[in-house]
Design a protein that fits this description.
The structure holds two protein chains of two kinds. By secondary structure, chain A is α/β, with parallel strands linked by helices. Chain A folds into five domains: 89 residues, Glutaredoxin (3-Layer(aba) Sandwich), CATH 3.40.30; 211 residues, 3-Layer(aba) Sandwich (Rossmann fold), CATH 3.40.50; 84 residues, Ubiquitin-like (UB roll) (Roll); 90 residues, de novo design (two linked rop proteins) (Up-down Bundle); 56 residues, Alpha-Beta Plaits (2-Layer Sandwich). In chain A, 40% of the residues lie in helices and 15% in strands. Chain A is globular and about 85 Å long. Chain B is α+β, with helices and mostly antiparallel strands. Among the domains of chain B are: 75 residues, Roll (Ubiquitin-like (UB roll)); 64 residues, ADC-like domains (N-terminal domain of TfIIb); 70 residues, 3-Layer(aba) Sandwich (Rossmann fold), CATH 3.40.50. Helices cover 23% and strands 19% of the residues of chain B. Chain B has eight helices and 16 strands. Chain B has a five-stranded mixed beta sheet with strand order 2-1-5-3-4, with helices on one face. Chain B has a three-stranded antiparallel beta sheet with strand order 10-11-12. In chain B, strands 6-9 form a two-stranded antiparallel ribbon. The two termini of chain B are 50 Å apart. Classes of the chains: A alpha/beta, B alpha+beta. At the A-B interface, helix 17, helix 18 and helix 19 of A face helix 2 of B.
């Protein structure tokens, strides 16, 4: 059996320096027989990048934090001698970070070469398509997806099988399959990892959908900021075509299916399905009212099925292994798994896939390894900029579509930002609203104008100029923007504000009533003060201050002039005696 | 047509299937406020003022975009509806140059009317505003986007009626604005100055330049007539103030134009009271043109025609007719030239 060295070469891995590690490995393995060196997608261990999986003697070990300097020892001991370097292991399968995960969608990511169709085929690739085409009628495929209970992974959570059924039953000769691969949430990279790590799974899912609804043409709408994903999808499409999985008479049946890639220009609103369709058609990316839904009037007014990458990537496995088997994972109403991008104040940042119904506590503490430096967990923001914050007392909330909505968050596409006691919730609300406000398309009044006014109020509160009535105003604006906006962007944009107000109103009040930011984040409310008892009069702070706000010569008393201070934090960082504090 | 039954404000009514809730309300005489809806162009659902409450789902829905469904129960002025509408108006006012005193549409402005109806004195959200220089470079109308409420009627009018596509939305979110491609002046764009954007603008963002300071809307009398410019016979309304024409509007309720106009019909009316306009026929007497009666003028012309024809034959005469005439008038004219003047020398200005 060949020894395989798979280097994590997703965009994230490359950014962390994977190319240099790859080059060093290439050099070191020159002339070595029986070793295959390959690129692979993201395995999800962001914190440990650069990551490589070494498959030797039937054993798989993932090494992390690799640098070109470590390559020599790695080759020597692991690749050639078959030893294990304990200290360099990124994660062991029995550790909770991996053991608590259940990888269905990501099963191939980080383990196969995404640019080689044979590796996908070896893992059972295109078997789902084959089964669908040869053993099932289109209606049976739809039924199987319905049985699986799969719900849309893009945010709304609409049952995928039902959506397919609507498109399949809609009258019309020409129908489209569209993949929403735009992934606009800041900090979200679930879909990118699938596209970069297992692109054939996406293609196979779309192919099965095309067969089920009676379509012969698909579009993948992917943001142009994902060049590697686009490249790998193109490679996958070419290989699939050569092997007869894509194009005319697929697998010698009379099923034809073609896929086109449409590169988006990076507008968040183009993740909204009707705006996305407008963008494919060459019009401005602005949503239109629904109904009619895309299932009856979609791309160029033809019946269209739209799902996101993760949804389609689940399909081949559902068809191959059966919908019922899939439905056994997760909860009754939220079946299967969900991929999350774990970020923020957490030890193990990365990409994880967990069964639905897992508690937030398990994700944060078991998989995520808890909060760095032993600080206290405060909240987790789920669902990206349209989502909400879930506080510590709800740590045992199970992650499923309905529980999340009840708590004021949403599943969204899978962003999971952890916050600790040093996170200001007003600031968090401001951050997310600032994003959606800038990304609003501007078509409808509540979203265009209302989010701006909410943001202005938040800015005022952050600056210590909030008024008592501002809290009611934010609630009033938020409630009505949710109720009256045209599309999902506006209908969810106030969520970060409303959910932080629901659980952390006292923090808003501290800003307004006491001009105090309890987390010590809002710069306008902070004062940098020298604790005279601890100060040794070394005057380093005087030298580093870029605006000359600190007075005093060496051995004299130092004072910070609050009028001049810009709160840049330079003095606090440089003080060798920790004599400068934020108040 | 199939009929369906819906309950609006507690009143059960039968309406044609396929109608929107807003159209159903209109038929029943229920005034649901809207700023971005106009029957002449596609429905956009952008202003969110026409929200009504669906009693069954408890949701607010935009009545302009939703087709009425059998068994629906709708409230058009419930407390929730009123709260939402007030906020929409308030938000529009926050980004609107509320300088009604100087605005041509003062008294004929839907934003003003609705704000009054819902008792909004001034915005509760004073903050940043989009600011634009006033564009009065073109000879026909002024664009003051400080008053624009971004309902998009002008954009749809431009794309759908003359299909000029001269303007569209530019930028995103709070920064969005109406613009020509690359913000070139309208004169350098594909604009044909039909003025349909001006006609449909519900506020004072687009106003004809000639109409400015010639009368408040309540002083204007509308007089229906036929446009004098060409044979199409567009139905128009003269805006009359103290016996002077001060503007022209399309008449929306009749063929052939249903409110649509062209640059001449909309903006080319300044000849009406022009001091040099001919108001009587002129005959040259002793080398000077002097006004005369139609009787004398026609007699004179007929006599001259006869003289020329007798002396030089019919081919010494010719006739040229105008696009201002109808088909019937053109037909009569060529008949007259051929039969009475006895020549085929007849043509039409549209061939020049």
């Amino acid at each position: 059996m060949k020894t395989r060295v798979l280097v994590g070469m997703g965009t994230c891995g490359i950014a962390a320096g994977a190319r240099k590690v790859m080059e060093a490995l290439e050099k070191g393995l020159q002339g070595v027989e029986g070793v295959e060196l390959l690129p692979t997608g993201c395995v999800g261990l962001c914190e440990k990048e650069v990551v490589a999986e070494i498959q030797k003697n039937g054993e798989k070990t993932i090494y992390g934090d690799l640098t070109p300097e470590k390559v020599e020892r790695l080759i020597e001991e692991v690749v050639l001698k078959g030893n294990i370097i304990e200290d360099w292991i990124a994660a062991r399968p029995e550790e909770p970070i991996l053991a608590k995960q259940e990888r269905i969608v990501l099963e191939n990511c980080g383990h196969i070469n995404p640019e080689n169709i044979d590796e996908y085929l070896e893992k059972g690739g295109y078997k789902g398509l084959e089964k669908a085409l040869k053993d099932m009628t289109p209606d049976q495929v739809v039924e199987e997806v319905k049985t699986s209970g799969l719900r849309g992974r893009g945010g709304g959570g609409f049952p995928a099988g039902l959506k397919w059924q609507f498109a399949s039953q809609a009258p019309g000769d020409k129908k489209y399959v569209v993949c929403n691969a735009d992934e606009g949430d800041p900090g979200a990279f679930m879909d990118r990892s699938i596209k970069e790590g297992d692109p054939h799974a996406l293609l196979e899912g779309m192919l099965i959908c095309g067969y089920a609804i009676g379509s012969d043409e698909g579009y993948i709408y992917v943001r142009a900021e994902y060049p590697l994903a686009i490249k790998r999808i193109k490679v996958a499409m070419k290989q699939a075509e050569e092997r007869g999985y894509l194009g005319e008479n697929i697998l010698e049946t009379d099923y034809n299916f073609r896929i086109k890639i449409k590169e988006g220009a990076g507008a968040f609103v183009c993740g909204e399905e009707t705006a996305l369709l407008a963008s494919i058609e060459g019009r401005m990316g602005r949503p239109r009212p629904r109904p009619p839904y895309p299932a009856t009037k979609g791309l160029w007014n033809k019946p269209t099925n739209i799902n996101n990458v993760e949804t389609y990537a689940n399909i081949p496995r559902i068809i191959r292994r059966g919908g019922e088997k899939f439905a056994q994972i997760g909860t009754e109403k939220s079946t299967g798994t969900k991929v999350f991008a774990l970020t923020g104040k957490i030890n193990n940042t990365g990409l994880i896939e967990v069964p639905m119904g897992i508690s937030i506590r398990e994700i944060i503490y078991d998989i995520g390894g808890g909060i760095p430096e032993g600080r206290k967990f405060k909240a987790v923001q789920i669902g990206g900029p349209s989502g909400g914050c879930i506080p510590a007392h709800l740590l045992d909330l199970p992650i499923d579509y309905d529980s999340l909505v009840e708590s004021g968050a949403i599943m969204g596409s899978g962003g999971l930002v952890t916050m600790d006691e040093e996170t200001c919730m007003v600031d968090v609300a401001w951050f997310f609203l600032n994003f959606t406000q800038k990304e609003s398309c501007g078509k409808c009044t509540p979203c265009r104008e209302g989010t701006k006014r909410m943001l202005e109020i938040l800015e005022r509160i952050k600056a210590g100029k909030g008024k008592n009535e501002d809290i009611e105003r934010l609630k009033f604006l938020g409630r009505n923007i949710v109720d009256t906006s045209l599309c999902g962007l506006g209908q969810t944009a106030p969520n970060p504000v409303l959910s932080t107000l629901r659980f952390f109103e006292d923090e808003y009040r501290a800003h307004i009533e006491e001009q105090r930011c309890p987390a010590g984040v809002c710069a306008d409310l902070l004062r940098y003060v020298i604790v005279q008892e601890d100060c040794k009069r070394c005057s380093i702070c005087v030298k580093v201050c870029p605006v000359n706000a600190i007075s005093g010569k060496p051995k004299e008393k130092h004072l910070i002039d609050q009028e001049i201070c810009t709160k840049c934090n330079a003095c606090l960082e440089k003080c060798p005696f920790d004599a400068i504090v934020k108040k | 047509m199939a009929e369906i039954s819906v309950k609006i404000n507690g009143q059960e009514v039968q309406i044609e299937k396929g109608k929107t809730l807003l159209q159903a309300c209109e038929e029943l005489g229920i005034d649901v406020p809207t700023l971005c809806y106009h029957p002449r162009v596609a429905i956009e659902g952008a202003c969110r003022l026409c929200m009504v409450e669906d009693k069954k789902s408890g949701q607010l829905i935009a009545s302009c975009t939703l087709e009425a469904d059998d068994g629906m129960e709708i409230e058009t002025e419930s407390p929730r509806v009123v709260e939402a509408r007030k906020l929409v108006l308030d938000l529009l006012l926050a980004s609107h140059d509320v300088d009604c005193f100087a605005c041509e549409r003062n008294g004929d402005c839907r934003l003003q009317d609705y704000s009054y109806r819902y008792g909004i004195e001034r915005t509760a959200f004073p903050g940043e505003r989009r600011e634009f220089p006033i564009d009065n470079q073109n000879p026909f109308f002024e664009r003051d986007y400080n008053r624009c409420i971004q309902c998009g009627l002008c954009v749809r009018a431009c794309h759908e009626i003359p299909q000029a596509g001269a303007i569209d939305f530019a930028n995103r979110g709070f920064s969005s604005e109406i613009a020509t491609p690359f913000n070139v002046p309208l004169e350098d764009s594909t604009c044909v100055f039909c003025g349909m954007c001006v006609e449909l603008c519900p506020v004072g963002a687009l106003v004809p330049r000639l109409d400015r300071f010639t009368g408040r809307p309540w002083e204007i009398e509308k007089v229906r007539t036929t446009c004098a410019y060409c044979g199409v016979g567009c139905q128009i309304e003269l805006n009359v103030n103290e016996d002077r024409v001060v503007g022209i509007s399309g008449y929306g309720e009749s063929e052939p134009n249903y409110g649509d106009l062209c640059v001449k019909g909309k903006f080319g009316w300044d000849y009406i009271h022009h001091p040099e306009r001919l108001t009587a026929p002129l005959v040259r007497k002793e080398g000077k043109l002097v006004p005369t009666s139609w009787e004398e003028a026609l007699d004179y012309t007929a006599r001259k025609f006869k003289e020329i024809k007798e002396e030089h034959g019919g081919d010494a005469l010719g006739g040229l007719t105008s696009a201002k005439c109808t088909n019937e008038e053109n037909y009569l004219f060529q008949k007259f030239v051929r039969a009475a003047l006895a020549t085929h020398n007849v043509d039409h200005c549209a061939r020049l």
